[in-house]
């Protein structure tokens, strides 16, 4: 079986490629804009191309049985048409919570006529890097909505679920909301980061207006959208789900473990 991974040098795409090889997949294609700098695992066939230029992915699609579709909104309809024309038999797409900004990807994949599986992760643990500059500068973290609660997931667990689904059948027509193993408030996340770094971090709560410029510094135009989400999670906390664990058969990464493994991001 030939598996095509698009966005193969992105944060999750790269992990999907690595996980596929770990699981024994011997015919993996990786789509990337710069094959010379890809530095992907041995045995992977690297193709030059980008989802933003659909004509550039035709060669990679030819003969591919299954495709991991990275999230890219502007050209998803054309990419899906090309995948259908090439004879791709299954698509596993990475989107986000149903009804969110990535919903057009799910719609396009379903309209393609190709059997599909949607991966709908919530917030990634790696979003903690929003605090990285503040953590490097000191022990006081200025943030908003301290009681906003969700169950963030490690990108590694999302990639592991994707690889397992790519290599097995029985997931067609299913959408998997993916979360980490425990629901945590933002105040609790910062406490766990401090434990991992070996120093207490103080949470300084900001009002929405005070937080706006702080979040814009690291998120730009997405700051409003992110803060709106935190407001929602304060009023409607997210609880943990466990489909990633059920798919992979291995324990989900806890926030404490993720923080200890990624202290380099904050130093």
Task: Report what the structure shows.
With 267 residues, this protein is an alpha/beta fold. The chain folds into two domains: 3-121, 3-Layer(aba) Sandwich (Rossmann fold); 125-152 and 181-239 and 253-266, UDP-galactose 4-epimerase, domain 1. 39% of the residues lie in helices and 17% in strands. The chain is built from eleven helices and eleven strands. The strands form three sheets. Strands 3-2-1-4-5-6-9 form a seven-stranded parallel sheet, with helices on both faces. The protein is globular. The termini are far apart.
Proportion of β residues?
15-25%
Order of helices and strands: EHEEHEHEHEHEEHEEHEHHHH
The name CATH uses for the topology of the largest domain is: Rossmann fold
Query: Between the first and last Cα atoms, what is the distance in angstroms?
Result: 42 Å
* CATH class term of the largest domain: Alpha Beta
What does the average pLDDT come to? 96
Strand order of the largest sheet: 3-2-1-4-5-6-9
Q: Structural class, please?
A: alpha/beta
Helix content range of the residues, please? Answer: 25-40%
What is the count of β-strands?
Answer: 11
CATH superfamily of the largest domain: NAD(P)-binding Rossmann-like Domain
Radius of gyration: 19 Å
For this structure, the quaternary state is single chain
Total count of domains: 2
Categorize the overall geometry: globular
Largest sheet properties: 7 strands, parallel
Contiguous uncertain segments of 5+ residues: none
CATH architecture of the largest domain: 3-Layer(aba) Sandwich
Count helical runs. Answer: 11
């Amino acid at each position: 079986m030939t598996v095509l991974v698009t966005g193969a040098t992105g944060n999750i795409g790269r992990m999907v490629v690595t996980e596929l090889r770990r699981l024994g997949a011997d015919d993996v294609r990786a789509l990337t804009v710069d094959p010379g700098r890809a530095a992907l695992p041995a045995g992977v066939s690297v193709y030059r191309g980008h989802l933003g230029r659909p004509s550039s992915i035709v060669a990679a699609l030819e003969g591919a049985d299954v495709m991991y579709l990275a999230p890219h909104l502007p050209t998803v309809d054309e990419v899906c048409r090309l995948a259908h024309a090439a004879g791709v038999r299954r698509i596993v797409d990475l989107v986000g919570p149903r009804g969110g900004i990535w919903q057009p990807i799910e719609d396009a994949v379903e309209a393609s006529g190709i059997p599909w599986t949607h991966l709908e992760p919530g917030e990634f643990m790696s979003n903690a890097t929003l605090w990285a500059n503040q953590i490097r500068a000191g022990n006081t973290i200025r943030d908003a909505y301290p009681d906003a609660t969700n169950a963030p997931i490690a990108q590694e667990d999302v990639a592991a679920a994707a690889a397992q689904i790519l290599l097995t059948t029985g997931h067609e027509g299913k959408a998997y909301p993916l979360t980490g193993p425990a629901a945590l408030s933002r105040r609790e996340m910062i406490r766990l980061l401090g434990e991992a770094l070996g120093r207490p971090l103080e949470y300084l709560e900001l009002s929405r207006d005070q937080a706006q410029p702080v979040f814009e510094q690291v998120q730009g135009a997405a700051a409003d959208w992110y803060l709106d989400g935190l407001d929602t999670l304060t009023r409607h906390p997210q609880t943990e789900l466990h489909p990633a664990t059920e798919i992979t058969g291995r324990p989900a990464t806890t926030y404490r473990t993720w923080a200890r493994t990624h202290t380099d991001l904050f130093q």
